[in-house]
From TrEMBL:
Residues 29-48 bind DNA. Transmembrane segments: none annotated. The keyword DNA-binding applies. PANTHER family: ACREF/ENVCD OPERON REPRESSOR-RELATED, ACREF_ENVCD OPERON REPRESSOR-RELATED. Gene3D superfamilies: Tetracycline Repressor, domain 2. InterPro entries: Homeodomain-like_sf, HTH-type_Tx_Regulator, HTH_TetR, Tet_transcr_reg_TetR-rel_C_sf, TetR-like_HI_0893_C. GO terms for molecular function: DNA binding. This is HTH tetR-type domain-containing protein.
Length: 191
């Protein structure tokens, strides 16, 4: 049995991200990934059962990095409105600093693999701190008494929409635009 090498695993993940963003899901093969990562095709199967397994693990890895970034700086005692602004700023910064991750998430989220691989449960655990934060806001009467996931969509999707436009070259995603989005999102979710 071959031992796993973290550098090879990282090279495989990076090669996969690059290829997916360059040529898409259907044209990305394990042999192309191996060639880009500079490993043999059989090496990939030391780390992953198949392409779906690899894509699912890559998705979880990227989402985990994103969730950890989003909650950075959230403090239990801070006002909920301030915390939501911190979360949205963190999300914007993460997306702008990690274009490859963002493009991958966009593709994966719109593919049937998300449902097929039953990854929703993993996501719920990763984003639990944000759901808890929303729950606290609802208990304080600051946020609408709606499902936390629904309230979070009003904070998440406006940021990703502006990031998408930024990457297309349709405007800069600067602090002024983010401040406007934060205010609009807050108006949508506050009680």
């Amino acid at each position: 049995m071959r031992h796993k090498d973290e550098n090879k695993s990282e090279a495989i993940f990076q090669a996969t991200l690059e290829l997916l963003n360059e040529i898409g899901f259907s044209d990305t093969s394990m042999s192309k990934i191996a060639k880009r990562a500079r490993v043999s095709p059989s090496t990939i199967y030391v780390y992953f059962a198949n392409k779906e397994d690899m894509l699912g693990k890559l998705y979880i890895r990227v989402k985990e990095k994103m969730s950890l970034n989003m909650v950075h700086g959230l403090e239990e005692g801070q006002p909920v409105q301030q915390g939501m602004a911190v979360m949205m700023r963190n999300l914007r910064d993460f997306l702008l600093e990690n274009r490859d991750y963002f493009l991958f998430l966009e593709q994966f989220s719109n593919s049937p693999l998300l449902t097929k691989l039953c990854l929703e449960e993993s996501m719920a655990m990763m984003f639990k701190p944000l759901h808890d934060y929303i729950g606290r806001g609802k208990q304080q009467g600051v946020l609408k008494k709606l499902d936390a996931s629904l309230l979070l969509t009003y904070c998440y999707f406006p940021v990703t929409a502006l990031a998408k436009e930024h990457f297309k070259g349709n405007g800069e995603f600067n602090d002024d635009r983010l401040s406007e989005i934060i205010k609009l999102s807050w108006d949508a979710i506050k009680a």
